Amino acid sequence: MENTILHKAATRGHAHHGWLDSYHTFSFANYYNPQRIQFGTLRVLNDDAIEGGKGFGLHPHENMEIITIPLEGDLEHKDSMNNSSVIKNGDIQVMSAGTGIFHSEYNKNNDKPVKLLQIWVFPNKKNVTPRYDQISLNMEDRHNNLQQILSPFAHDQGVWIHQNAWFHLGRFDKDLETEYRIKAKGNGVYAFVIEGDFMLENQELNQRDGFGIWNVDTIKLKSLTENSEILLMEVPR
User: Which CATH number fits domain 13-136: 3.40.605.10, 2.60.120.10, 2.60.200.20, 2.60.40.10?
Assistant: First the structure.
């Protein structure tokens, strides 16, 4: 299809630093692929596993919306705005780096890995005042349903960012079908399969595959396996 792009899990960039095992859907750090810089305003989608007790020391970010979705274990966060917290599966964390922020991320536990998705989205405003937020979601609300976890609006469900973007998470029983309707004209959707297998429109997707689609109003989705989980990221193209 003209209006789609498929990134199979095995084609992602991969970096293994001992303490960190990281897969990059888009160019990141030492992984550079000119065909895979971004999907619209979606710039980074990293699938990370951090060994017990290890993590990223204090490091800077600016002018980027940074979303962290823990999948397993406990991630300890500290930053230059005096925030200190632990996030786990079911939580969503967001930072608007804006004019600049320093933060660190560590595995809270010594005896098991922490697994997470870290996502960067280009903001629609530069040099905003840095901001941090995290929320705990009711994970039951995503059973056989697309649960909104992020939007452009502070009063809406989930966290918010400085961008015309909406993220949804869903966990589905086998053979369940649903439809996603694009919220803003001109936006595309990048789907990332966390677990299991899906049929999205006419494309079969397996665990950790990514699939971008644009110039559509709705997207049909069908779970092919029990307990399949997917993340949909609607972003400006």
Answer: 2.60.120.10
> Token match 């989930």: residue?
158
Distance (Å, whole) CA 207 – CA 21: 17
Q: Which of 203, 72, 61 is nearest to 132 (CA)?
A: 61
pTM tops 0.85: yes
30 CB neighbour count, 10 Å cutoff = 8
Q: Which CATH number fits domain 139-236: 2.40.370.10, 2.30.30.210, 3.30.1490.20, 2.60.120.10?
A: 2.60.120.10
Q: How far, in Å, are 44, 108, 116, 119 from residue 73 at the CA level?
A: 22, 8, 9, 18
Place of tokens 């649903």: 178
Task: Look at the chain and count its residues.
Answer: 237
Q: How far is CA 9 from the centre of its chain?
A: 15
CA distance 123 to 66: 10
pLDDT in tens, 33-80: 999 999 999 999 999 999 999 999 999 999 999 999 999 999 999 999
Are 85 and 116 in contact, with CB atoms under 8 Å apart?
Answer: no
Place of tokens 């029983």: 173
Cα dihedral 81/73/39/165 (nearest 10): -60
The DSSP letter of residue 3 is T
- Reported as a single tens digit per residue, the pLDDT across 131-187 is 999 999 999 999 999 999 999 999 999 999 999 999 999 999 999 999 999 999 999
